[in-house]
Amino acid sequence: MAKADETFLINLYGGNPETTACDLNHLRYTLFTQSATKASSTLARLPPTVYAARFHALRSYLQIQKWLGHEINTYPIRPLPAQNGRMQLLNPS
Fold first, then answer.
1. What is the pLDDT along the chain (93 residues), one digit of tens a residue?
2. Element housing 89 (H / E)
3. Which among 49, 37, 40 is positioned nearest to 13, based on CA atoms?
């Protein structure tokens, strides 16, 4: 899923996903160096980094699952202090 998202974003921002050195970070750098030579440049037009795109896709997936009614437990098991001074695990679900 992550590779398809990255390929889509590379195509969206005018890159060529078939080149060996083309990923989102490389495309971002290339577009930045091209826009830095112009008199006015807008950083908002740059593509996201690989990690930003990946986490955006995960957040979108989670939102779609909620809309479909598939509840996903996103709360981790976390330790809580017990009465006797030892830690106990509590699962909020």
1. 667 888 888 888 888 877 756 788 888 898 888 888 888 878 888 889 889 998 988 899 889 988 998 877 666 666 666 666 665 555 555
2. strand 87-90
3. 49
- Tokens at residue 23, please? 């990923």
Element of type H or E holding 3: helix 2-12
What are the extents of the domains in the chain? 1-67
| Element (DSSP H or E) covering residue 76 | none
End-to-end CA distance of the chain: 28
With residue 41 as reference, give the H or E element that holds it. Answer: none
Neighbouring CB atoms inside 10 A of 68's CB total 8
